[in-house]
Amino acid sequence: MFLSISGYSQLGINTETPAATIDIAALNSTGTSTKTEGLLIPRIDRQRAQSMSSVPASTLVYINSIATGAQTGSAVNINAIGYYYHNGTAWVRTTPNIYNNNGSLTEDRIVTLGSKALSFSGGTTLNAFSVNGNTFSVDAQNNRVGIGTTNPTSKLQVEGNLFLNASRTKKETNNALGINIGQDGYSYGNRTDNFGIHIQSTSSVHGGSVARINFGDVSTGTAIGNRYLSFSVGKNLSEILSITDANGGRTGINTSAPTATLDVIGTMKIGKNSSMSEGAQLEVASDDKGVLLPKITKNLLPVTIDGLVFYNPDTGCFRYYSEKSKNWLSLCGDPGNADFELVDCNAPTGGIVTNAVDTPLIKGESLNGNTQATYTVKINVTSIGRYAIKLSTSNGYYFYKSGNFDQTGVYQVKLEGQGIPINHNETVAPDTSVDAITDIRFNDISTVIGCILPGIHVKSDAAKITNVDCSSITYGPGKYITKQTEFSTTQHYIDIPVTITGQGDLVLETTTENGFKFSSGTLAVDSSTLTIRLYAQGTIGNTTGIISFNLIDVTPDCSGIINVKVDSSKGSFTDPANRCTEILDANPDSQNGYYWVRDTSNNKFKTYCDMKGGGWTLVKSLSERQILVVERTQAESIATQGQRNPVKTETGVFNEYAFSVPSAVVNNIGNINNQYRFTIKEKGHQNTGTLTPEIVESTTVAPSDDVWGKDNYWNVKIFGGGNPATGNYVSDEYTSEGKVFGISLVKASASNAVYTFGGIPFAATPPGFYSFAYFFTGFYGGVNLAGTGTLSYTSSNGQTVSFDKRYINDLFGLYMNSEMQVNHHIGTCSNSNDDFGGQSYCMAGWANWRPHKFNNGEGRIVQYWVK
After folding, report:
1. Residue ranges with strand state E in 133-266
2. Nearest 5 degrees, angle CA 789-CA 791-CA 795?
3. DSSP 8-state assignment for residue 382
4. Mean per-residue pLDDT over the chain, rounded
5. What's this model's pTM, rounded to 2 decimal places?
């Protein structure tokens, strides 16, 4: 061996001119010498490698055995004999050649081809290339591809369903699937080739062909340019439907060579679902429709085919060609006037016009075009022909009908009204006062009959309600309360469906019950008036429950049908309650909404009551923007809070983004049940455009209906230790339950301070529920008290959000101070792009916090409730 060390710290072995820090040259770099040359890296087993400590990165060894040691610690990657290098943490195997060795990807790999090609060639096996077993398989032996199978029997075989996304084809072509059937040197794609799509069953029970879609050129030789598409059905495929573009387009049923636009070989039935009549070649079946033949305004056609029929609308007759007579004949003929007589004067003779209640005839109103103004007569026809029947009165109107009787027998003929009634005959007893039929003419000949035809009723043109549809009465959305004196015309009304004859002014009213009634006032109406609206009037008495009313001076009077519910006035502007539970006690079916409460000095304030939750009273409601941008303070508790935007008048507009009642109201509410609730909701009421009490109140969402409020709330029940509504509270004598990010937060006993989060006890005892004057009301916690670990929840936009359990610190209350947690679920960090997550950990200071962007920048809403 020759050793050379140069002056600038380079070592050469078998060379005097080392080219690197260490340069080892072969003694014989060429030739046929059998002497072994090379570099032997230290050879050790896995246990020895695992035992090494403080191994410098890039250390190289050869593992010659994995029978010793375990695949853990720094040896976690040693699973085969070979070269390994140390990365500073663990031994890593040098990458094997995937063409000589199996292996596993340790991370994603991307092959960028650029202008190069990647191909696999020379394969001769069935499953030469595959992905995940049979997910994708290439049969190199037979040049086939299988999806869902490793043994395809055709060029492409798919086991399972196939989805073509046609919407993506628009970039190159509108064809979602292209099939080529003709190519030079291969085929013409004609009927001889008979290309198509075959549908079959491989079941052992009735297997075989099911159907086939055939297509190509209609020729059986080369190709002539006309195409066909046909459908075959059955185990022994039979071509049932054929479509071709030849001769302008033709469709054949049971024929592959249609000779007309639609060529049907066999019987044909059109219309309803019923059996084909025996012996019919074509049947049109219907209960309410006919067959419309061609309408041609001439008496003959240039084509003369025996039996050819058409209809001439000018003559109102059908014409047909007779080969026997060599002429176009009419089916009408002219039989002359019919012979007929009146059967009798009994029903249905007359009809609606003879009914005093339902008659459509009104003084001064034309009968022309009135489809109800008809008169029915029973006629016995003894010979067919034309007819004209006219019944006249001496009151300016008559009834007339003409036509043809095509058959003998008894007919009911409905005569149509003409003219204008001059006078009415409506009296107290309308059945005895009628217009008589004074002239009867059959085919313009005055006729005397042996009975008296029913007389005709004509109503007065003065307005009169002739009927009330009690079953269709509807009610306005307004609520009714005891002592109520003011009513809204858009809220407090009932709509009565009516039938009116005549025209003029009238008043429709109900009886007065419990101090109030409903009245239309004087109202101009006519026969087109279908509904009359009655408005509430009066002063509602002290009776609560269902109040029933009757209509006055009409029939029917809807007795027992017009029912209005009257609730207690408790919680109204005129009768404010001490708390929402008091309202709920007075009206057990009270709904979530806005009500009026008061303090002990009877000062009234509008607030929101959560009635579904048992009567919680909202005492404070602040948006994230109000907390983090506008006020930037924590200096209050519910017992000492000031008022924000109080609503003291009926026209005042509530603002749940910045609201609180004064502490006197809180004291008055909370001095009984001593229960407290904290919620955070995401959906606020409308806060853009012109706002009215109705708009705000109709768009307010209860916490129980809010996507975020359902998973972020806290209920506290005090058993002792004071009352936070009237003073400070630092006791453990309470229970609580709720959720933070959908995870339960519970204190189950009033006799200890044990809290659980997600069912797991806190690592250390938190102060818990806390309230101190001019400072803070809420959950008093601390970093690490809930324990450690990462939890997650689903945000309102559907994203999964993780958070550190250590930071379940101060909750719900406005305890900000200089801590780096923004109350954990109020707002987010100023530099954050997250506008849906709950927890935030930011730099301390108001400038580093901001509200979420929804609700037009107001963010979520923190709300305090007392019961």
Report:
1. 136-139, 144-147, 156-158, 196-201, 208-217, 227-233, 238-244, 250-253, 262-264
2. 155
3. E
4. 87
5. 0.47
